[in-house]
Amino acid sequence: MASRKAPGEYIQVPPNAAAHVDAYFEYRHIVGDDDGGQMFTPEEYEAYKKRVLPMRLHNRLYVSWINPDGMDCILVGPQHKCLCRHRFTEHKTDFQQIPKDRPILLPCRAAGCRCASFDYAANSSGTSDPNCRCKHALQNHSTNPPYKCQKGCTCSGFSTPFTCGCGTAANKHFTLVETKEERERRGHPTVPYGIPYKAMGGMTGFSSLAEGYLRLDESGRGRPSDEFLNQPITALDHPILRAHAALDPDSMTQRLSRSIKAPKSPYDPNAQLTTGSRKTGTSSQRHIKK
Ligand SMILES: [Zn+2]
Ligand SMILES: [Zn+2]
Ligand SMILES: [Zn+2]
Ligand SMILES: [Zn+2]
Ligand SMILES: [Zn+2]
């Protein structure tokens, strides 16, 4: 009788498996679903790359969802959803030549969809979509602007009641498609090198995944002031920072034990930290005791 195997023994992994997995992920990032679900042969893959990579390296378009002040609240990536219900990667994103007309249109390529250009569906995810102000689902609206409701209500176009993290209503935002030069003229970051992956949209790095108001570059809220960055390390800071301060002879002046105080807000120099609310708290407690 064969002895029982430990769970780890069931899967035989060849020594170069990791390289195969990496190659597969690279293939997926480059091809997306352009292979129609049937993996390209090595020859087809080479031909595909020969055709699309020059377009991606030279004619990249940046796609973001911006508020009226020009903050890139969302940097659109391959999986972001359009009001036509298809993902960004299902839209046309590779261009032989950058169109001359503005706005630049990124039509949907999903079978049967007549969406004329990618339009970010705020607050939607892979599994759920927000409802419209008219209470009907995104599914019940047309797939072309102004995305009217088809349930016979008075809705004049899809609009979600959601307020963006920037504090502005979602329906005051719009999807912007721009070239590298146009984006730089707006003072927003681009990447200096070409990226071979499909449908990168507005992605420029890891922080691209954060919402605009959290992103500390010019696409979001911007870099905090030097005063904020150089303030003394206090007991409220991250342990790594505190450990560093303890080792750094220059920081002997920053007597840590003394300084349990709230860090300054990087954005609002006039912010009143806690003291005001504490006072009102006490007075209301007294009030209740009466
Ligand atoms: Zn579509
Ligand atoms: Zn679309
Ligand atoms: Zn509606
Ligand atoms: Zn409706
Ligand atoms: Zn916003």
UniProtKB/TrEMBL annotation:
Coiled coil: none annotated. Residues 247-290 are annotated as: Disordered. It holds the Pfam family FAM221. InterPro entries: Fam221a/b (IPR026755). Residues 271-290 have a biased composition (Polar residues). Belongs to the FAM221 family. This is Protein FAM221A. It comes from Didymodactylos carnosus. The lineage of its organism: Eukaryota, Metazoa, Spiralia, Gnathifera, Rotifera.
